[in-house]
Design goal:
122 residues; mainly alpha; 2 domains; two-stranded antiparallel ribbon; 2 helices; 7% strand; elongated
Length: 122
């Protein structure tokens, strides 16, 4: 009976140490994860800023090469794009919508095909 009790106490001690080790590992991993989340948010901000900086650089280049264009014009907006010859917000025009419009136009154009003349001279 004494050995059984000693064995159980020994197992309990080992399990408690293992639980303490796992809790310490969990806390360490949680701190690393939180640090990574902060770093990820910083990197996202850097990427967005680089995109804006690149856009502004291109606007300055256009102003340099095309002297008649005013680079300070408020119509130059990184969030706008030219679609079907019109300047629109990117939010209003997504690539999926443009692909869908293109497919519909192709279907309409396919129905407008003209059959050739069978009486051609060879």
């Amino acid at each position: 009976m004494g050995t059984w009790k000693v064995c159980c106490l020994d197992s309990e001690t080992k399990l408690n140490r293992r639980i303490a080790d796992l809790e310490a590992d969990y806390d360490e991993l949680k701190e690393k994860y939180e640090g990574m989340e902060v770093e990820l948010e910083d990197l996202k901000g850097c990427i967005i800023q680089e995109h804006i900086n690149g856009f502004q650089k291109r606007v300055r280049q256009v102003a340099f090469f095309c002297q008649d264009i005013d680079a300070a014009d408020p119509r130059f907006d990184v969030n706008k794009d030219v679609v079907d010859g019109q300047l629109v917000n990117e939010v209003e025009s997504s690539p999926e919508e443009e692909a869908e419009k293109g497919a519909v136009q192709e279907d309409e154009n396919a129905g407008d095909t003209v059959e050739g003349d069978d009486n051609k001279e060879a």
